[in-house]
Every structure is written in C-alpha cells, then in structure tokens.
Amino acid sequence: DLFTSIADMQLLMDSEKYIPTVLDKYIKQEQQRLQELKDLVSEYTVRNEKQMINGIKDLTNPINAFLMIKRKIFDWRDIEHHMKANGAQGFLQRLTDANYGIRQPTEEDLTGAAIGLLRLQDTYRLDTKELSDGKIFGVQSNYTFNAFDCFEIARAAYNQEDYYHVIPWMEEALERLEKEDPPTANKNDVLEYLAFAMYKQGNLKRALKLTEELFKNDPTHPRAKGNVKWYEDLLEQEGVRRSEMRKNIPRLSNDRPASALENTERTMYEALCRNEVPVSNKALSALYCYYKRDRPFLILAPIKVEIVRYKPLAVLFRDVITDSEIETIQELATPKLARATVQDSETGKLVTATYRISKSAWLKHHDHPVVARVNHRLDLMTNLEMETAEELQIANYGIGGHYDPHFDHARKEETKAFEDLGTGNRIATVLFYMSQPQIGGGTVFTEVKSAIFPTKNDALFWYNLLRNGEGDARTRHAACPVLVGIKWVSNKWIHEVGQEFRRPCGLTMHEQERYVGDLGGPEPRYVPNFSAHPKKK
Ligand SMILES: O=C(O)CCC(=O)C(=O)O
Ligand SMILES: [Fe+2]
Fold it and tell me: Which of 67, 217, 397, 439 would staple 484 via disulfide (CB 3.0–4.6 Å)?
C-alpha cells in the first residue's frame, strides 16, 4: 500500500540514496573477481600451448602425470569457486537493510499508483499526451513517461477491465514507440491490448485494423490470425460487408464506465474539485469574519473565524494550529499510519477501502502534550464538549488519494453505528489542514456545491446534525484527489452526548439551522435565502 501515503513514499525515496555506494562497492568486488578469472585464462592458455608442443611426452612423465591430476582437482575447485563467488547476496542484503523496514514495492503497488493517476486524469481532465510529457495544467515538470510507462499504466487499467483508459494510454504508448530508439516496449503487445480494448469499447473496425497490423508484423503470432477472423465474423454478424470492413471507420467510441458513485454526484464532485462551480456574489457578500472572544481565555487570544457558508453553516478557524504542533503530530502519527479498512459485506473480513485512498492513525489525549493542547483548543474553538469526542484522527493522502462523497454522521437506518461508543451521533466535524497541496485535495460538499481548498494551519468546521438532532443531508462531502503536493489533515469527530448545555437543541422540532452565535460570533444581519450559486444564463 505504498501508494496510499506520501509519508511512505518519503521513506522509499530515502532508501534509494544508498544504492549508488553499495552498487559501486559491488562492482569493484566483481571486477576483482573477474580479473582473477582472466588471470586463470592466461595461465591455462600458456599451459595448453606448452602441452601442445610437448604432446604425449608430458603424459609419460610421472612428475607431470601427478601434477596434472593435482591440477584437475585443485585448479578446478579454484575455477568453480571464482565463477560462483558472486557476492551479490551480501550487497542485496545491505540494500534491503537500508529500506528502513519498508518492503520493496510490488506490481500491486504500481497498479495502485497507476489507478491513482487515472483518477487524477478523470477528475482534473488531464490530457494523456500532456501528462506523459510531464505537463500538469501547463506546468512542465522534469519527469516524462516513455512508451513502456504508458504501456504499464494501460495494463493496470486493463487488469481492472477498465478499457476506457486502456485506449488512450496504449495509443500513447504506440505513438511514443515510433520515436524511440531503442524501443522501450514491445509494439505487438501494445497492438494486441489496444485491439481488444477497441473491441470492448465498441470499435470493431479499429480492432480489426490493429489486429491485421499485428499479423503483418508477426505472421506467426499465436493469436493474431484467429483474432482477425473473429473480428471479421463479428463485423459480418453486424451486417458489414467484407468490402466495407476496412473502410469508413467511424469516430472513436469510448464511453466512461459507471462508477460506484451515482452519475450526477460524480459529475458534481469532480467539477467542485476542479473549482469550476462558482458561488454567486450575493452569497459571497453575506459572509464575514470575526474574532471569537466569547470565552475568558479568548479575550486575550481570540480565534479568527471566517464564515465560508450558511445553510448549512461552515466556518474556517484561521491559524489554529502552529507549524511545530503540526510537525509533532505528523511525527507521532507516521509510524502508526495504516490503510483504512472496511468490513466486507459478504465475507465479514476487513478489506482495504477503495472509496477512501489514504492512510490514517489515531492519536490519544495522553500520547503527547501537543495532542492534549489541541483537544483543549478544540473546546475553545467549537464551544463543544470534547470529553465524548473521538480521538484525533490523522490522515495522509498519497498519489491520487481521495475520499468519495460520504456523511460523517450515522444515518437513521444505521442504528448500530457508534453504539459501542455510547456517545450518540457525530454532531460536528473539525478538519485541521496540516499541509497545503499545490493542486487538488479540496474538501467539497456535493449537495450544497461548495469547495474549500486546504490552507495550512486552518481548520474547517461544520455541524453534521440539525438543531433537532436529525442528520443534515446537506453535509455530504468528499476529499478531492491530490494532484500535486502532499495532503495531511487531522479530524475530530464531536459527539452529541455532553452537548446538552453547551449547544442545546432548538425549542421546536422544526428548528433546524445552526447559528453563528453558537460559535461566539455576531449573527448575520441577513442570510441569503436564495441559491448560493449564480443562475445559469
Ligand atoms: O480530507 C478531507 O478533506 C475530508 C476528510 C473527511 O471527510 C473525513 O475524514 O471524514
Ligand atoms: Fe468526512
């Protein structure tokens, strides 16, 4: 699961720095060994020449007869020893020891990284060629993909039966192969995969054409000839005449497959992540900032609060966690980071979640004074009781790391959730931003269409429950995939029990909305009652 967290990737990077010195030492030792073998070659050549000249005479000499037998035994041992004495094992061990206990990445990790990359490509609408050229949003990086890299990405998609992504990436591999000398991938392999993906996505004529090219390149290919016939037969079944099979090739068809997310939600999630959903000026004009001074301690050290949205209320607490606190928390969490797991509904086993690609850890109040201090501050920030809150959760997102749309609170039907905690539902969420990804990694609310992009040292806060205790469906939210940079967050889930006097329910069961006053701020003079989003023209 290396790809799920940047923290592990850093260890991976560290482990690479010993490779040159260790390899260099190995090469020196090998050169020495080969030199000794070369010396043996010359020794034997000289001896052989001598024997050629002396011929049968040597054999009849008893001294030489003895020497020959001795040589056969001992010199042979020498040769065998020198040829087998490859010291690679020891050097490999040294490299493994330098891995800080993290294992060597596997094909699975590579597949995971490729899938993360494809998610980024979808969400941020990245062009395959630009991405392969190392360009992200027009910014050129120092890294580019060769044909083999594109081939591997496509193969990862293929293994997931995701033919939608196989097509552009195999096509890119083909194009790159044209320019490569020596080529990094096998063109016929690319053609075969691409042809199959074309067929799967409904491009029969293209599949036929590619397979014929494969057959032309390698008439002995074990499947090419059969596949040509198979595609021809399929076209025939569709009523295409033989003479038409290689003509009038229609536009490429390549529909994006459905995902676990419902389509409109996915579309909104991705648009919000790209920051393409504007907020109306009217809605923006109703937002303001204030100093929260409603607790004795805060008179001297007020908290900066910025309202980011009403209905449902969300605020940003600015500068509520320092760089050094962040560093401490990251250090405490790093060794504990583990991939999020969920219970498989069929087998009941714990499996890694795919809706959430990140690694997380929990930090207890007693783990470190910094954790205790942050917990105390959370009380001052939210005016809510922290005794019943969950421990502080730390999360680190890797390449394409994300969290699909979800609710933090338990819904009506989820009667068992949080049962063993005995603290009721999750009334509110605080999300500390402990880093600032360069691109992507936003926290987006798909129902109310708002996007918040992490700013380091700040914390986002929202209530998950309405004033009458019911879950607020408008809080459905997600974490966007990180495109460039690192995303560290920590969250605190605050529970209902203990809030009876701190944040009382409404006076009527219909009272729903949360007030800025609950957070020690001046109530807005008006809250826009219109859509927060500009009308479509
Ligand atoms: O990382 C984010 O932006 C959101 C995380 C989140 O929603 C969660 O952990 O419940
Ligand atoms: Fe969440």
Answer: 439
> Which CATH code fits 107-244?
1.25.40.10
Phi, psi of 316 (to 5 degrees): -110, 130
For the 265-320+354-519 domain, the top CATH level (class) is mainly beta
CB of 452 within 6 A of ligand 1: the answer is no
Is residue 479 lining ligand 1, measured as CB closer than 6 Å?
yes
pLDDT 10s digits, 250-271: 999 999 988 888 999 999 999 9
Give the three-class secondary structure for 139.
strand
Check pocket membership of 358 for ligand 1, CB cut-off 6 A.
no
Counting ligand 1 atoms within 8 A of each CB, the residue from 5, 482, 483, 491 with the most, and so the one to mutate, is 491
CA distance 88 to 30: 9
Instruction: Considering only CA atoms, give the Rg of the chain.
Output: 33
Q: Where are the domains of the chain?
A: 2-97, 107-244, 265-320+354-519
Cβ of residue 480 lying under 6 Å from some atom of ligand 1: no
> What is the value of ipTM here, to two decimals?
0.99
% of residues, the chain, pLDDT over 90: 61
Which range, 5-14, 131-140, 505-514, has the best average confidence (pLDDT)?
131-140
- Ligand 1 centre distance from Cα of residue 527 (Å): 27
